[in-house]
Amino acid sequence: MPIPSSSPGVYVQERAPPPRVIESLPTSITLFIGNTASGPREVAVKVSSLIDYRTAFGTAGDLDGSIAHYFANGGQVAWIIASPSRVGTAAFHAELSKCFDAGGPVDAIDRFQLLCVPGESDPATQAALQMQCASRRVFYIADCAADATAASLGRGPDPQLLGANASWSALYAPWVVAIDPASSVSRSFPPSAFVAGVCARIDAQRGVWKAAAGTEATVIGATGLAIPIDARVADAMNAAGIDALRALPNRSIVIWGARTLAGAGGDPDYRYVSVRRLMLFIETSIEAGLTWIVFEPNIETTWATLRASIAGLLDGLWRQGALSGVRSGQAWYVRCDTTTMTQADIEAGRLIVMVGVAPLRPAEFVVLRLCFMTAT
Fold first, then answer.
1. What is d(CA 92, CA 84) in angstroms, rounded to the nearest whole number?
2. Minimal CA–CA distance to 275: which of 336, 213, 327?
3. Does residue 7 form part of some domain?
4. Residues 51, 116 within the same domain
5. How confident is residue 222, by pLDDT bands cut at 50, 70 and 90?
6. What CA–CA distance (Å, rounded) separates 92 from 94?
7. Prior bond of 174 cis (ω within 30°)
């Protein structure tokens, strides 16, 4: 009721609580694990620039060049776990495993979405990293071997990488030739850090739902590729689920593949990197945005508030072009009511919400049908 201006007294005004807004989480904070010559060990260090990295770890070590190219290509924030051992050695693999142990340095990181271990190409180790990423709900950007050939890439990835966790990773090839910022000498670098930087750049410019591939996905700083990738080899790699880097006729080097390792016949729902990363973004944003609901009454008013919160996030994504459908009802749905939980669920304290979305998929194969008309 309005407050009278002439009669003193106590007046009660009821106000509806503000809507619960689910905030969008970051999409491209990257964890790097690799060799450094100095700096803190067995801890995760957060950096926001190459200067931050070198202040903590110096310019020596294998990781320096990869971090430089990550930030040059659009990376914004990275976590670093330094190893004194080099990639590919037994000591490094042991240290890498310890990073993911309970209470290890990875557990101390509040949030990251991408994982890079530049230069690591041992299939058994990569398969273990896939499993870690699946359990932690992050995406693994994997490197091919430094000595990969066009013939070996055309045969596809090692079978160990095509298991149940294949959709949590993508394999990129070949290695990238670029100037080493520490020595000013041209050499080959593993592609994963370049790709992570491009993902961050495309996410900022277009959104996580846009595949980090195509003519926009220029690899900044690349002067060449360790091996040439022509259309025939790229086609074979794509069919096998390996994402190629290619030099276009204008001499720019771009990412020319958008598939996860499930793209070679695995889970069709997660064939594409952009779909997996979009779904991860939606899942983690909803999870983080609904912590308020714990210990709330498990009743219709709570369910309605929850539905409205999730609907606000999904409708916003649809309006940005992240979901398919000409109407929002075709792009997503949210259910949380007696159709999603039984009385036994409610009595047990379980609140169950069902969310469905229609993600966009990249147009890999563009077919032009030309009709030639004769003059009459």
1. 8
2. 213
3. no
4. yes
5. very high
6. 5
7. yes
User: Same structural domain for residues 246 and 318?
Assistant: no
Query: For residue range 56-94, what is the model confidence (pLDDT) as tens digits?
Result: 999 989 999 999 999 999 999 999 999 999 999 999 999
Q: Within a domain: residue 10? A: no
Least Cα distance to 86 among 127, 46, 146 occurs for 146
User: Given the structure tokens 């973004």, which residue do they identify?
Assistant: 281
Q: Is the pLDDT of residue 366 over 60?
A: no
Residue position matching structure tokens 């557990």: 107
Q: Using CA atoms, how far apart are residues 143 and 242, in angstroms rounded to an integer?
A: 10
Partnered with residue 186 across adjacent β-strands are 179
Give CA–CA dist 120/241, Å, rounded. Answer: 18
First to last CA, the chain: 78
For 209, phi then psi, to 5°, come to -75, -10
Residue 355 vs residues 62, 168, 307, 319: alpha-carbon distances, Å: 43, 21, 9, 17
- Tokens 């060449």 label which residue? 224
* Shared-domain flag, residues 174 and 255: yes
Same domain, residue pair 294 and 270: no
For the chain, what is the domain count? Answer: 2
Nearest alpha carbon to residue 282 among 82, 23, 8: 23
Where residue 233 sits, what CATH number does that domain have? 3.40.50.11780
**46, pLDDT greater than 60:** yes
Containing domain of residue 313, as a range?
A: 290-376
CA atoms within 13 A on the CB side of 14: 1
Tell me the C-alpha distance between 115 and 86, whole Å: 17
